[in-house]
Amino acid sequence: MTGNLMRDRLIVGLDVPTVAEARKVVEELDGVVSFYKIGYQLAFAGGLDFARELAAGGAKVFLDMKLLDIDNTVAKGVENVARMGVSMLTLHAYPKAMRAAVEAAKGTGLCLLGVTVLTSMDEADMIEAGYEYDPHTLVLRRAEQALAAGMGGVVCSAGEAAAVRKIVGPELAVVTPGIRPAGSDHGDQKRVVTPRDAIRAGASHLVVARPIVASVDRRAAARAILEEMDRG
């Protein structure tokens, strides 16, 4: 893979409290990164308008909203998100919600991603939440359901990426958060993998936030991760 192609596969999480800080991150990473994630923290601080701005300026935007509601509400939300010009949108991988979202996104360029199991959750967390499956088993089940629903891809731990890739085939996106360069702090993530190993496992896109955003030299941190991805 060339460096430019890897650049399109690295998604930097703009997990910062204000649009001003997010704008600073994007400015510092200009020319190195072209894909950004906007989640709850920034979305609720003006980040949705910033997502439109980024998309209009040619950047790719991964809107991490993890939608889950009744079918009509999900569909109407997806219709409006598609009009924003963003590239990717997440929803929880519940079959009814996914089917409604897929129908609403038809004819648009929006890639819908089913969130399988959060990378902050381990087996104990799953039991506490009332699930009968361990994380790995539930991830694979939801990957099968996402494929059946016609989704554009799934979000899973890179530790499950190889097994998920076998289920969804070569075309669907397999987006992996919980990426940590070798030797870095895991933070609140419990199922983490290095950039190189995630690419080797079959991930199409890696989501990286703190290792880049919290770095004193964000450009250098992003380049180092891209180099790790290249080695994968």
Automatic annotation (TrEMBL):
The keyword Hydrolase does not apply. The keyword Lyase applies. Gene3D superfamilies: Aldolase class I (3.20.20.70). InterPro entries: Aldolase_TIM (IPR013785), OMPdecase (IPR014732), OMPdecase_AS (IPR018089), OMPdecase_bac (IPR047596), OMPdeCOase_dom (IPR001754), RibuloseP-bd_barrel (IPR011060). GO terms for cellular component: cytosol. It is an enzyme of class 4 (lyase). Residues 9-225 form the Orotidine 5'-phosphate decarboxylase domain. Its EC number is 4.1.1.23. GO terms for biological process: 'de novo' pyrimidine nucleobase biosynthetic process; 'de novo' UMP biosynthetic process. The active site is at D64 (for ompdecase activity), K66 (for ompdecase activity), K66 (proton donor), D69 (for ompdecase activity). Substrate binds at residues 15, 37, 64-73, 119, 180, 189, 209-210. GO terms for molecular function: orotidine-5'-phosphate decarboxylase activity. Keywords: Decarboxylase, Lyase, Pyrimidine biosynthesis. It catalyses: orotidine 5'-phosphate + H(+) = UMP + CO2. Pathway: Pyrimidine metabolism; UMP biosynthesis via de novo pathway; UMP from orotate: step 2/2. Pfam families: OMPdecase (PF00215). It comes from the Bacteria. Belongs to the OMP decarboxylase family. Type 1 subfamily. Homodimer. Catalyzes the decarboxylation of orotidine 5'-monophosphate (OMP) to uridine 5'-monophosphate (UMP). This is Orotidine 5'-phosphate decarboxylase. It comes from Allomesorhizobium camelthorni.
